[in-house]
Amino acid sequence: MSVAESFIPLMRIGHCVFVSVPSELSDSQARTLQDTVSERLSRSVGVRGLVMDVSALSIVDSFAAKILGETASISRQFGVKAVLVGVRPEVAITLVELGVDLRHVETALTLERALEKLRVRIVSLD
């Protein structure tokens, strides 16, 4: 796996960790995503929310779907609420068809809605 393939954009702002899922998620990238998020949550104090932005993801296979569900489940074990944001209709259909259990995962159409679900306020500088 190249450095570009292993890079998972992840950052913390306040009490939230944000992860941006690449547009094409290979099996190795999916595993790296899960490992990276798990590692970050295990060493972070005060994190209350995980926002997984999947808006760039146009297709999802069974392995990637499983990893997304597991990652959200892992976040719960750390006391962190996960929100999946930007799910495209075709991805939502695939997740349902694959039977992915996302009962413990909140979804939101936009980042703003995800932050509302996590009760996080971002102050505007306007």
Number of strands: 5
Q: How many helices does DSSP assign? A: 5
What would CATH call the class? Alpha Beta
Terminal Cα separation, in Å? 43 Å
Name the assembly state: single chain
Taking strands numbered 1, 2, ... along the chain, how are they ordered across the largest sheet?
1-2-3-4-5
Residue share in helices? 40-55%
Largest sheet: 5 strands, mixed
Mean pLDDT: 85
- Helix and strand succession? HEEHEHEHEH
Radius of gyration, CA atoms, in whole angstroms = 14 Å
> How many domain regions?
1
From the helix content, strand content and strand pairing, which structural class follows? Answer: alpha/beta
Task: Quickly give the CATH architecture.
Answer: 2-Layer Sandwich
InterPro entries: Bact_StressResp_Reg, STAS_dom, STAS_dom_sf
Protein name: Anti-anti-sigma factor
Organism: Archangium gephyra
Topology diagram in text:
Blueprint: H1 3-6, E1 10-13, E2 16-20, H2 27-43, E3 49-53, H3 62-77, E4 81-85, H4 89-97, E5 106-108, H5 111-117
Parallel strand pairs: 2-3, 3-4, 4-5
Antiparallel strand pairs: 1-2
